[in-house]
Design brief:
CATH class of the largest domain: Mainly Beta
Radius of gyration: 18 Å
Number of strands: 17
Number of helices: 5
Helix content: 25-40%
Shape: globular
Largest sheet: 8 strands, antiparallel
Distance between the termini: 20 Å
Number of domains: 2
CATH superfamily of the largest domain: q2cbj1_9rhob like domain
Strand content: 25-35%
CATH architecture of the largest domain: Sandwich
C-alpha cells in the first residue's frame, strides 16, 4: 500500500528546517547505505552531528506523531532516526530494497518506509521516487511538506536529478502490524468507520465498524 500524505509539515516548519540544515555539513550518502545499496547510492546526507540536525529531525517526527493519516497508515511502533538527503545535479539512488533490520541493539525491523519532501517539485527536475509494484512502477514527486509511505519490502529508486537540488527526509518504521496486506485492510476499515461515524454517528453499524477495526487490530498487532 502506497499512501501519499499532504501537509505533514506546514510552511513555518519547512522554513525553520531549511534554516537549521543550511547548505553545509552534508556527507557522502553511501556512509549510511547497506552492503548492496552502496553500489547504487549517489547522494549527500546531513551529518547527524551538524548544528541544527537533531532539531530539524525532531520537528519532522513531532509532525508525524500528530498526523492522523500517517498514524493510521503506518501504525508506528518505532520510528528510526531520519536521514536528511540532498540530491544535486547528476545524483540518484539506483534500484534497491531497504535493509530488513536496522540500528544497533536491539535492531528495528523495517516494515514501512517514508519520504518527506522538503522542497517544491518545481525547484528541481528529475528526482522522482520510483516504486516497483505488481501493477508496474509508480512515480512519486510531492509538494514540499508532503510525505509518502510504502512497504519497505519493495524495490525502489530515486531518479537522476537533472536540474536544481532535491531535499528530502527519509526514515523507516517498525509497525505494530508487520504484514502489509493487513495494514492495508486496517487502513481501509479505518477510513470506512470515520465516514460512517460522520454520516450516522448513532447507528448500530457505526459501532460495528469501530468494533471490527479494534478487534482486527487486537488480533494482528504485535
Amino acid at each position: 500500500m502506497l499512501v501519499c500524505i499532504p501537509d505533514v509539515l506546514d510552511w513555518t516548519e519547512l522554513k525553520k528546517i531549511h534554516a537549521l540544515i543550511g547548505d553545509g555539513a552534508f556527507k557522502d550518502g553511501r556512509l549510511t547505505a547497506g552492503y548492496r545499496a552502496k553500489r547504487v547510492k549517489h547522494n549527500l546526507q546531513l551529518d547527524k552531528e551538524a548544528p541544527g540536525a537533531q532539531e530539524a529531525k525532531t520537528l519532522i517526527v513531532n509532525a508525524l506523531k500528530r498526523n492522523r493519516m500517517f498514524q493510521r497508515a503506518a501504525m508506528p511502533h518505532t520510528i528510526r532516526p531520519f536521514l536528511i538527503s540532498r540530491y544535486e545535479v547528476g545524483m540518484q539512488y539506483g534500484m534497491h530494497v531497504d535493509d530488513a533490520l536496522m540500528g544497533g541493539h536491539p535492531k528495528v525491523r523495517s516494515d514501512v518506509s517514508i519520504t518527506v519532501f522538503l522542497n517544491a517539485p518545481d525547484e528541481y527536475e528529475g528526482g522522482e521516487l520510483t516504486i516497483a509494484s505488481p501493477f508496474g512502477e509508480q512515480q512519486v514527486k510531492l509538494p514540499a511538506g508532503a510525505a509518502v509511505v510504502y512497504p519497505s519490502s519493495t524495490l525502489h529508486r530515486v531518479e537522476p536529478v537533472t536540474r536544481g537540488v532535491r531535499l528530502a527526509a527519509v526514515s523507516w518504521i517498525q509497525s505494530y502490524v508487520r504484514d502489509p496486506a493487513r495494514r492495508e485492510i486496517l487502513f481501509d476499515i479505518y477510513r470506512l468507520r470515520e465516514k460512517i461515524a460522520t454520516l450516522a454517528p448513532d447507528a448500530e453499524e457505526t459501532d460495528l465498524a469501530f468494533k471490527t477495526h479494534s478487534n482486527l487490530l487486537r488480533m494482528w498487532s504485535e
